[in-house]
Amino acid sequence: MTRSNLVGGEMLNWSDLHPGDARGAAGGAAATALLAATLQPEDSVLIAGPHAAELVTTVAGQVTSVDLLVRSAPDAEELAEQLAETKGEVYCGSVDRFAVDEQSGGTNDRYDVIVALDGLDRLVGPDTARFPWAEALGRLLGRLAPGGRLLLGAENSFGFQRLVQPDITAALPRDEDWGREIGDRAPSGLKPLTTALQAAGVADAGPAADAGTVGDAGTVGHAGTVGHAGTVRAYAVFPSLIQADVALSDVHGFAAVVAARAVASRNDGPVLMDPYRLVLDAAAAGLGLELAPSWYFVIGADAPAVLPEGSVPGGDGVLLEEHLLMALRADDQAELRRIIPGYVAWLGTGGNGSPDNVILDGSSYRLFGEPQELDVVEHLARFARRALESGSRQPWPAAADPHTLTARLAAMAGITVPEQDFTPDEVIRPRGSAEQLATVARLADELAHASARAILFEGTVSGIRRSLPYRVGHGVLNPARVIRRRLKRVLRKVRR
Q1: Which has the minimum average pLDDT: 149-163, 173-187, 223-237, 301-315?
Q2: What mean pLDDT comes out for the span 39-55?
Q3: Peptide bond into 308 cis (omega under 30)
Q4: Which residue of 158, 260, 346, 420 is surrounded by the most CB atoms within 10 Å?
Q5: For residues 231 and 148, what is the distance between their CA atoms, to the nearest angstrom?
Q6: Helix or strand holding residue 489 (H, E)
Q7: What gap in Å lies between CA 58 and CA 219, rounded to an integer?
Q8: Is 222 strand, coil or helix?
């Protein structure tokens, strides 16, 4: 690979591989798995936009030739050095200049595969005053060979990340926040993106290309000018394009759990809503794909439904934690007393997973993920803590701390949890602000009901004391009490 070639619009004092206050380059396990599934050894590939150096070297080892188009001059020099033995070129500049300058020679006319997993927004620099997203897409499509494949990424401006964590830096100008027209950015939402792909001739119009079909089957439609017989498959990417841990064409069932874990791992600080529960609830409502933080569009190529393959367990069943939480919310103590002993018995046979890591299928249990080296009480304690963090309703008002709730659950399986040394009760706050407010409202309502019952009881007792039978009985028994107390004092003196 030669040194970087300048095509115009390059950024000399800027790096997308090693950013300051900007976001990093696209990468992750899902991106690597996607490339492994779609690239062929004889392919000529163009990687357009910021991609992690590990991703670029992986592609270089899989195909015949690879060209790079990056806007950062330092990144271009670094990548050219790393790929010195690779067949291909590194071009530094904006995609609008690249498409024009190639007519004078020096670049491949067509590519079998174009990889733009970071999206199209960072294919130009501040020297490009206006370059609409649709035009950038058209430029890339124009560089594809007949039957070529395009791997495209796009961010969701109204995804889970916006509902979970407010962007407090949105009002602070960053180095990359130079003036850009609104049309230069990707369309907001899955349906507008699908419409833009249709307008570019990538997907056929009609029911098969409707965004609702994307959510159901992960397929946009049959490819038009790109892949002669391929399809356009949409993936929900979690937790982001720059850290694509998993990409799912269908966000339901166990896939929703995998997505929820990915989003929760990215948001471990204060949040507006519990990210884990938010993703699961949205997936249950059929909105998992539409609210994903970002998407991959695989155009003209076949790819697995899950990336990386095997990251979502197969088979039937339900996550044990979800089943137990539902029983807690419904105050179904009979179901709890049926499930907990069976789960504890499974742990005794060598099972090693907490309820959030175990699948319940009828009366059988199997592990979901990596085993956890905990004893039985510690597994139950983990569930108790997660239940309190979720803000889930507890059927036992006294079980408001993790130790008490753990002891109550363990007692259902005949296990006695020893009393802990005297320490102030540990307070577990719900994970998100919304769950905290809901918990406060629920506790206030319970306190109001308890206060009303206390007032009613106090009024009942007061009425009894004012009744004639009570006064007669009190008048009869009171002298007897006085005599009894005096006799006790006399007996004490005699014994002395």
Answers
A1: 223-237
A2: 95
A3: yes
A4: 260
A5: 12
A6: helix 468-495
A7: 27
A8: strand
For the CA atoms of 163, 169, 174, 180, the dihedral, rounded to the nearest 10 degrees, stands at 40
Q: Label residue 307 left, alpha or beta by phi (over 0 means left) and psi (-120 to 50 means alpha).
A: beta
* First-to-last C-alpha distance (Å) of the chain: 110
**How many other β-carbons are positioned within 10 Å of the β-carbon of residue 142?**
10
Interval 54-68: pLDDT, tens? 999 999 999 999 999
How far, in Å, CA of 204 to CA of 355, rounded? 45
Q: pLDDT tens digit string along 327-383?
A: 998 989 999 999 999 999 999 999 999 999 999 999 899 999 889 889 999 999 999
Residues 6+ apart with CB under 8 A from 238: 244, 245, 246, 247, 248, 258, 259, 262, 263, 292, 293
Handedness of CA 163, 168, 172, 173 (dihedral sign): negative
Q: Which residue from 198, 237, 234 is spatially nearest to 218, judged by alpha carbons?
A: 234
pLDDT at 347: 95
pTM of the predicted structure, to 2 decimals: 0.83
Q: Is the dihedral of CA 101, 104, 106, 108 positive or negative?
A: positive
Give the position of tokens 């259902």. 412
> Cβ distance 340 to 412 under 8 Å?
yes
